[in-house]
Prior knowledge:
By secondary structure, the chain is of the alpha/beta class. It has two domains: 1-32; 36-263, TIM Barrel. The chain has eight helices and nine strands. The strands form two sheets. Strands 1, 2, 3, 4, 5, 8 and 9 form a seven-stranded mixed sheet that branches. Strand 2 (77-78), helix 3 and strand 3 (98-105) form a beta-alpha-beta unit. The longest helix has 30 residues, at 2-31. The radius of gyration is 21 Å and the shape is globular. The mean pLDDT is 90.
Amino acid sequence: xxxxxxxxxxxxxxxxxxxxxxxxxxxxxxxxxxxxxxxxxxxxxxxxxxxxxxxxxxxxxxxxxxxxxxxxxxxxxxxxxxxxxxxxxxxxxxxxxxxxxxxxxxxxxxxxxxxxxxxxxxxxxxxxxxxxxxxxxxxxxxxxxxxxxxxxxxxxxxxxxxxxxxxxxxxxxxxxxxxxxxxxxxxxxxxxxxxxxxxxxxxxxxxxxxxxxxxxxxxxxxxxxxxxxxxxxxxxxxxxxxxxxxxxxxxxxxxxxxxxxxxxxxxxxx
Length: 270
């Protein structure tokens, strides 16, 4: 019994020391200045009525506007991915604290509910569209896509069929990239320069393919911030799902992106 008690005491002491060490390291990290870089936020849908499916992907409009209020209070200004790429080449200047709003899949409510919010606030955004979903019940039509692009929203590809590119053969992956780009451009969209990897699935071979297919950038699901040294085909994004803890959760997610950059975890440099 004494031996068991001694072991338990040693374990408890070890746990306590580990907790103190973690708290100390956390305090040190929090006391450091924020790492520099541009956050790219990953949304899907913004709608008042939660969908029957994919509830976790919806940020209700009141929650979304609260997040936008917070970004404004913190001094952020929205830019597009194209703005970022032009600035990287020295073709334009960026605001002091840029942020990029992105939306995956091309849901119809991006047009009916998200667009009015963006226009009311004068904000920029980028929407990545699954081409073979265009015109289906829950998704934007071709007319809506052309109109939303005409009204200032950047449109990118989310491939033809929303299949994980990293898990298919090279020929099929190339078709997913190429066909989605061509079909949108043939249907009157401006040139498509950007892509969002479905399910965050990517590889070095896919990066090479994107360059060959004349894409200029792609976004991942890896959290972090971006600067001009970040690989433009492996841009980091901070996922913003349906909030469970309001604006506090949003702040935590922004903090996670900064922390991942500071620690160098899953960060992609050119």
